[in-house]
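S1.2 Input.
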Amino acid sequence: MGAPVAVRGELAGWPLRVGGYLIDSLITLPGYILYWIGMPKNWNASTTMGDSSNAVSGSDSGNIPLMLLGLVIMLGIGIWNRWIKGGQGQTVGRKVLGITLVSEATGKPIGTAMAFVRDIAHILDSIICGLPIGWLWPLWDAKRQTWADKVMKTVVVTTSK
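S1.3 Output.
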């Protein structure tokens, strides 16, 4: 594989960034569905409306293999898309919308390890004051960065699809 090429473009707006994140979330949906279907369930039923003497309740133990399959699918897609593809600058969602994550200093993708660290840094975007202020920060920030982007010195720019 050759050296990463520097990417220069206009700073990507918040709607494109959110759209990319939503697309990335949607591709993990099959794993979430399998996990949910396999989860243990509690249920209540009654044969006559309002008559608690005929109420029946119970639970099932779930389907552990189905839950594990769903978890493996979610984790596998997450690692591949968020960190491997994301470290190369474009997750599936970013590619669809024509945006790329790059180092602010070099204009090159940040790599798999730093994409992982950036995802951890996104905790800052969610926990300050108990509100997701950091996720909204690109709406008024001059560089359109989340707080995680500021910590990691990254920007999201528009590129060709």
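S1.4 Remarks. The two ends are 21 Å apart (CA to CA).
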